[in-house]
Amino acid sequence: MATNLYFNNFEHYGQQNLLEDLIIESIKIYGYDCYYIPRTFVKEDNLFGEDVLSKFDNNFPIEMYIKNVEGFEGEGDFLSKFNVEIRDEITFTISRRRFHDEVLLDQLTQKEDGNNATRPLEGDLIYFPLTGGLFEIKFVEDETVFYQMGELHMYDLKCELFEYSHEEIDTGIIEIDAIQDTHSSIMQNFQLLDESGNILVFEQGGTLITEDYRVDSISTTANNQYIQIETTSSGSLGAFLDFSEQNPFSEGSDW
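-> structure tokens emitted (255 positions)
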């Protein structure tokens, strides 16, 4: 049985454009101004498809709608036996047309076939100014609200709170770039400079590091100094390592 020939519900471009205009207007009214930050691969591992030297050096302001209006999803503040982890999740909705208008596609990571990406990519970041948090895109749902009037109008970006791992962040936005300054313990940030800003180096090529480079003072979670004191104090359980023994595994004799 064929559908009614007098009604065109899936190929009327005028209605598709009207619906998309209403979606864009709704996001502009009820959404938030966020920043889309694409990931730039510096040294990609083609075998594992990852890059430990990723950097974020661009930003594109765009309005987004928050789908989970009752608060962050995910496991929230998770207390494990190692530390406290914040596993907040959030879902952003953006207009396809607005994404293509605001984001320079040639700035996105190229696909395996060498062509530029045409949608948001997993691994890129979203900066949410309301909470001051960076969120990493884990999955992009490109078929949300299934084919209204025969067309797709939105992307759903399912994100998790970004776990900083010494990536270079230089977007030009002070609030975003401060995240690297707060959490980074890379030695390059503590290199000694001369009056002209040049890095001082040894004759062998090594760099001079300022005295401020101390992991126990840089990292807010490090207890290196406390652990060192406890393990070297007399009578403590940590003093069990005695490097003066020639054979610590013997049962009484030296060998």
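The chain has two domains: 13-183, 185-255.
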